[in-house]
Amino acid sequence: MFLLLAAGVVISAVGALAGLGGGFLAVPFLMLLWGLDSEMAVLVSLTMILANAVSSSVTYLRLRLVDIRVFALLVLPTIPGLFLGWWLLRNLEESQFRLLFAVLMAVVMIYILIRNRREEKDAGGERGEGRRRIDPLISAISVPIAFIAGAASSAFGIGGGAILMPLQVGLLKMSVKRAIATSMMLLAVMSGTRVIIISGASFDPFIALPFALGGLLGAQAAAYIVRRAKSRSLLYFLAACMFTIAIYMGTQALLDLW
Q1: Directed axis angle between helix 176-192 and helix 2-18, to 10°?
Q2: Distance between terminal CA atoms of the chain?
């Protein structure tokens, strides 16, 4: 239980720094080091993300970093996606799950690296630090992407931030810090719906609760760091995390298939 608590702190802090919730590290940890199957690993991961996201959101709301308009635009389409992801997870083989997980991380990582090559500055220092008007066409495009984020969250236990972050930073032109804050509030709603409503909180409490408690502590540490870190540094940090996990999970999947 102490090991799970410590792992929850580290994983949730890393995840909150990247705006992802930590699932991209939690799922491999629970599967490869703790021996859980993919379905239970996803549920425990989302329980930790729920604690992480709620804790982070309270801080970000107090700092007025959450973009409520973007949150309102994206939150509803994610809900039906959660049900689709739950169905997909129950029909995937373990090797298929790991391979798809690795591919998802690699694709988003490549996007982040390409995006990070562009200038992020405006007259105030950081592009998009203030609120922006959302174009109706961009809003229409964002809705199906949010649906996919919900499906990915439910199927892979990543919280959905791996899709929500590029959507907000790339398409909606938000600053990285504001996107992280809004992403974490979206993850709170998504993971809560998946864990409590869809799955009925059917997890092992001796695994999930210490992990979730660590998520609470790690989220606060990350929120403190985000306020003081440079956006470009956060993007590079995000890409490095995703690269590491994509290589590891992909290797495991190929070994299973072989």
Answers
A1: 130
A2: 34
DSSP per residue over 161-202, as a string? HHHHHHIIIIIS---HHHHHHHHHHHHHHHHHIIIIIISTT-
**What are the structure tokens assigned to 205, written together?**
């409490």
For residue 76, the tally of other CB atoms under 10 A from its CB is 13
Q: What angle do CA 24, 29, 35 make, to 5 degrees?
A: 135
Instruction: Delimit the domains of the chain by residue range.
Output: 2-257
Output the pLDDT for position 121. 45
Residue 140's alpha-carbon distances to 1, 125, 147, 171, 179, in angstroms, are 45, 29, 12, 11, 18
The Cβ of residue 236 has, within 10 Å, a number of other Cβ atoms equal to 14
Largest CA distance in the chain: 54
Query: pLDDT tens for residues 117-162?
Result: 654 444 344 444 555 566 677 778 888 888 988 888 888 887 677 7
